[in-house]
């Protein structure tokens, strides 16, 4: 049986907070610990070391966050940690450094970590990977490209670290076994006999406004032209607002990259009045659609039904929830209602509010990605 235990604490004393959490999550045969820390309230480096001291025999993986997810639902200013214990759960992680400029050099570390638990390009069955990455590195696609170049079908889910919306690169960190770093990523490989199920939840849908990216700079995630015209002009026109007011509408009307039947949300970050920059890489000749907000409660209900259909014996869920979703929930006063929908499943939930989400080989924004675990 897979035993998943989660606990959150907002005790202002870091040592006490970790102690409160450990009392609940410590278990025999623990193979993996995931932890998430509010970096404006706690010393992340110290927290990473404290958790590793308690769990010296297993991989301890974590990152800074923009809000935490756990037994209290969606919270802020907390530490949330989760233990995964089973004799059918083998774990090995790779720590990739300087992912902005040297992601490709992480290939040997990825292969070594995967092979340690019996995963290889020729053997990707009964396995998955979890990715944690510096959310200000703008390197998600680089790491996913390296990963996807090695593993063709291995399922992956993950999230980009946050820093409580300070956007301070020195506070945006990931950790593996007590070691912490900015500009880094941790890829955790899991070989398991337990069932699992991955899912993406969106609370936006495509409108009839469709575009083609005709000029873009991949390195800076900037789109210069849509349909041969200045991107900001086309974007504002499709919403029916002025270019000056366009940034006010970014959150409610992000763009979606269209691939076959899938929509991958791409959040705009800024505009100079002509070009538009995004939090995801947008390639030239990519079809885009203007998105609109839909009822999040209905979409959450759909996700829960899909989960129950695909994994009726669910033992717990790891979630990466975009900070923009949390911001929207807060503005509507619905954070508690959203939390209750998942807490009423009566299973452990864990994770964090992110600066980006990953599923498969895609990096996206304003989404929820999760992996659910079964027996």
Automatic annotation (TrEMBL):
It comes from the Bacteria. InterPro entries: FIST_C, FIST_domain_N. Coiled coil: none annotated. Residues 28-230 form the FIST domain. Residues 231-361 form the FIST C-domain domain. This is FIST domain-containing protein. It comes from Pseudobacteroides cellulosolvens ATCC 35603 = DSM 2933.
């Amino acid at each position: 049986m897979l035993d998943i235990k989660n606990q959150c604490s907002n005790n202002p004393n870091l040592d006490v907070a970790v102690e409160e959490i450990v009392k609940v999550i410590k278990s025999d045969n623990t193979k993996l610990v995931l932890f998430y820390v509010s970096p404006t309230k706690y010393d992340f480096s110290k927290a990473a070391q404290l958790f590793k001291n308690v769990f010296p025999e297993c991989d301890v993986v974590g990152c800074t966050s923009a809000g935490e997810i756990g037994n209290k639902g969606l919270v802020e200013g907390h530490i949330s940690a989760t233990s995964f214990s089973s004799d059918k759960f083998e774990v090995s992680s790779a720590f990739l450094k300087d992912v902005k400029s040297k992601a490709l050099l992480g290939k040997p570390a990825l292969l070594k970590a995967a092979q340690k638990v019996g995963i290889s390009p020729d053997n990707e069955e009964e396995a998955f990977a979890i990715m944690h990455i510096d959310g200000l590195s703008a390197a998600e696609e680089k790491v996913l490209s390296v990963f996807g170049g090695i593993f063709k079908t291995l399922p992956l889910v993950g999230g980009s670290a946050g820093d409580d919306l300070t956007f301070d690169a020195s506070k945006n960190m990931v950790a593996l076994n007590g070691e912490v770093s900015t500009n880094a990523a941790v890829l955790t490989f899991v070989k398991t006999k337990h069932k699992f199920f991955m899912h993406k939840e969106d609370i936006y849908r495509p409108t009839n406004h469709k575009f083609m990216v005709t000029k873009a700079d991949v390195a800076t995630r900037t789109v210069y032209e849509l349909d041969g015209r200045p991107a900001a002009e086309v974007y504002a026109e499709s919403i029916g607002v002025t270019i000056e007011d366009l940034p006010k509408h970014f959150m409610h009307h992000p763009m979606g990259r269209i691939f076959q039947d899938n929509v991958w949300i791409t959040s705009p970050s800024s505009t100079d009045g002509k070009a538009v920059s995004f939090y995801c890489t947008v390639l030239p000749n990519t079809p885009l659609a203007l998105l609109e907000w839909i009822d999040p409660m209905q979409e959450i209900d759909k996700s829960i039904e899909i989960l129950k259909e695909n994994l009726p014996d669910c033992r717990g869920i790891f979630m990466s929830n975009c900070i923009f979703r949390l911001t929207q929930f807060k503005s509507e006063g619905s954070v508690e209602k959203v939390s209750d929908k998942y807490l009423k499943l009566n299973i452990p939930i864990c994770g964090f509010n992110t600066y980006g989400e990953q599923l498969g080989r895609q990096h996206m924004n304003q989404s929820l990605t999760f992996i659910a675990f079964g027996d």
